[in-house]
Amino acid sequence: MKNKNSLTAVLSTLIVLSLVGCNAKTQEQTVNPPVSSEDSKSQIITTNVKERGLCFSIAQEYLDKGVTLESASENAKGFKNISIFYSSPTAIALLEEINTIDPAKLTQELVMEYSDKLWSSSRCLMEIVMVETTQYNNLTSNGAKPEDFTYFTPAEVLGTNEDYTYILSIPDLDDGTLTEAEIADYHACKEYMQTVRDNLAFIPVEAGNVMPTFTTKDINGIEVDSSIFSERKLTVVNVWGTFCGPCIREMPDLAEWAKEMGDDVQLIGIVGDINGENDTQHIELAQTIAQKANVEFANLIPNEDFSGFMADIIGFPTTYFVDQSGAFVGEPIIGANVAGCKEFVEAYFSENK
To answer: Which is nearest to 154 in space by CA: 175, 170, 178?
Structure first.
């Protein structure tokens, strides 16, 4: 729940948001016990977000009130960020309701309706953006201000860590459509953000995430391993599900694009809701979807080798970009956005001639 645009993408792809604030790939949590073991509210949950080079310390009391540390992403302005939101009981109930809707019945009008409701029942508490210091200095020398990097205002420079400059925003938003009880919790959480800010700590940035080493089969029984990435300069990895309407609707476009790709790039799929090689029901369904879309690219079955990778997926479809060494490049694209994927690939090769 980063901004209204991303909320719409969340809904249109039936993303099942994680409200526990733990990103399996880049976040590590520890619990510092309270002085009195009987007072669990005073527990401090420390979360290292390696991809953003930040360590957050948040009291259990405020997590219980609805403070939610989201996964690292990008904001609407295209800068790497991480946000803390107040997720009200109303918003959580809406998310649960969304996940019960048949994808075939999720019209654009219904998506926008739920998007508006979620937007007004969730409040951003903090946004932190990280920008390469060289880029930051270039932009600010031409007149850019801290609020030009964040989606929310006001904004200030938090500090520098390694090669990055960090900009922080603690927005002063209205109460939206929160209930009276939710308003009280929201304001308590918003006030607490100053404490979270004071306790923020920089940690080493781990930006070189890579695809797991794997050996698996595709949905047609052909063995595939992680050496597949070495065959091309760039691999587009589309993670989708057989239940996901937007995934299925974009499949013909992906199939056509894959056939048009040059020698330097390839497309592979990972069918996220197949539960191993013995899950014949979902394998056969994936085969049917692929056949109807004239898909010729490989669609992999995620086995235990993918457990950590799949734990980081917050919704289908999600598209990753992987270089020849197996390392992720750029940011993943969440949602059905073939045009956006094409733009990234074009930009990547333009910058890496």
So the answer is: 170
Considering only CA atoms, which of 245, 251, 237 is closest in space to residue 309? 237
- Taking phi over 0 as left and psi of -120 to 50 as alpha, with beta for the rest, 271 belongs to beta
Q: Tell whether 229 is covered by a domain.
A: yes
Domain count, the chain: 2
79's tokens: 């800068």
Q: What is the pLDDT of residues 139-183, one digit of tens each?
A: 999 999 999 999 999 999 999 999 999 999 999 999 999 999 999
Predicted confidence (pLDDT) at residue 313 exceeds the cutoff of 60: yes
How many angstroms separate the CA atoms of 111 and 171, rounded? 26
Residues whose CB is less than 8 angstroms from the CB of residue 4 and which lie 6 or more positions away in sequence, other chains included = 115, 119
Give the pLDDT band (50/70/90) at residue 193: very high
Q: How far apart are CA 9 and CA 338, in angstroms?
A: 13
* 241 in the same domain as 157: no
Whole-number Cα distances in Å, 287 to 79, 84, 302, 306, 336: 37, 40, 15, 20, 20
pTM: predicted TM-score of the whole model, two decimal places = 0.62
50 and 118 in a common domain: yes
Using CA of residue 112, residue 118, residue 124, residue 127, what is the dihedral sign? negative
Token representation of residue 7: 């909320």
What DSSP character marks residue 48? E
Top pLDDT among 150 and 309 is at 150
pLDDT at 115: 82
The domain of 9 spans 4-202
Q: What gap in Å lies between CA 309 and CA 304, rounded to an integer?
A: 10
